[in-house]
């Protein structure tokens, strides 16, 4: 009973997990919405299938940004100082870069919408390209924010930023699928476009999931402890929600779509992949913190 | 210089001081006077600590031993908390202290996440006497006392003289002699943080990660209840 006189709390809770998920989704939604303007007739013009989605997609990305930005600010202990990472910029902190890129990303969304609204098609491509680079930086910086913690072995892994980018592809695809299905604009080209992205996202997620497993199983004592923690406290989130529902089930549904081209099935697969994307991140964030708490 | 720091590490640099602490675990009796002195010196609120003494029991009756392990900020020469702070609120002092600028801290808790020694905490808001709250706090090696030629409060009060503080760059200081003559151990040296708190004769249960999990469920249940009660109000929503 006398063993622990202290049990400090792990610093990052649900707000960070939800923020990472929402900002990743917003980023990929932007990519889909800007794709027709940026890629045009490249790849056989398949990106043009997203043309009806442009305005709705940008509004959806803006809405997600308007939710996730304040969520991140409220999560701070001193929310009134939310501009400090920009005012006192520290170049070695990914959080500083994220704080810089986040409003710029918002500006790109607003700029793209304005160009659509006021019918300035010549502006769509440059804003689209700039916004796509910034949207890539959103999940990338959240992953880097974990990766740079050299002292937390579950995070200090160069695949984490890549994983976060891929997970944002899954969640963004889910949002686009749901919106397009609800609006009745899920034609064959849209199906083909989203199907390809979801396949790539799921395949890469599976590969990185297996890579994570190998790292955990063959890792140092801290990773061994993380492995025990994941299986004791987060096994439902890790094995059921991430691996079962988030990776295996969508893969099975994707096989179904080979024989039966159903927008409903593809949307269901994308939504399940998004659920997996959320829980994969949350397990990594939570379990990565607990090993230090125990030390 | 490691990236992201504001001052060069001063260890071994002639003409500069490098403050460090040696903790001789052969002398620690687990009285917790250091913890109390620290609480008194800084009015540290309930539920958070700048320094602690971890206690672990090994063996089974009649062959048992109780191990004590004072823990505090290691004032690393390559501190990951400093590198990761987005506002440079935490910074490296030229004499080795790792300090915190409360007026700049946004309490994003990145430094807590970065610290391998679990040495940082969030100060609750709405404190009664001290108005500093809602920001990150940590051990400062009692920088204000050292500047006035005093030793840190925990060192001053240590009954068994287990905690010894001094300038590691001065070869005649007690800490320099202890570090030179004993096989000292630092915590998690493999992380590359170059910690500057040296331990004499620590036990494996306190230094190795796989043995570090709390066995006492009563203590853990107490802590969980405490944080659950405060969740969302003073301590944000971090996970246990």
UniProtKB/TrEMBL annotation, chain A:
Cellular-component GO terms for this entry: plasma membrane
Chief location bin: membrane
InterPro entries cross-referenced by the UniProt entry: Electron_transfer_protein, NrfD-like
Compartments (UniProt record): Cell membrane
Membrane-crossing segments per the record: 20-44, 56-74, 94-116, 123-142, 162-182, 194-218, 238-256, 263-287
Keyword entries, A-Z: Cell membrane, Membrane, Transmembrane, Transmembrane helix
Mode of membrane association: Multi-pass membrane protein
Pfam families, per the entry: NrfD
Similarity section: Belongs to the NrfD family.
UniProt name for this protein: Polysulfide reductase NrfD
Organism, scientific name: Allochromatium humboldtianum
Highest classification ranks of the organism: Bacteria, Pseudomonadati, Pseudomonadota, Gammaproteobacteria, Chromatiales
Encoding gene, per UniProt annotation: nrfD
From TrEMBL, chain B:
Family matches, as PANTHER family: PROTEIN NRFC, PROTEIN NRFC HOMOLOG
Organism: Allochromatium humboldtianum
UniProt-recorded Gene Ontology molecular function terms: 4 iron, 4 sulfur cluster binding; metal ion binding
Protein name: 4Fe-4S dicluster domain-containing protein
Keyword set, alphabetical order: 4Fe-4S, Iron, Iron-sulfur, Metal-binding
Record bears the keyword Lipoprotein: no
Top-level taxon in the UniProt lineage: Bacteria
Record-annotated 4Fe-4S ferredoxin-type domain positions: 64-95, 96-125
Taxonomic placement: Bacteria, Pseudomonadati, Pseudomonadota, Gammaproteobacteria, Chromatiales
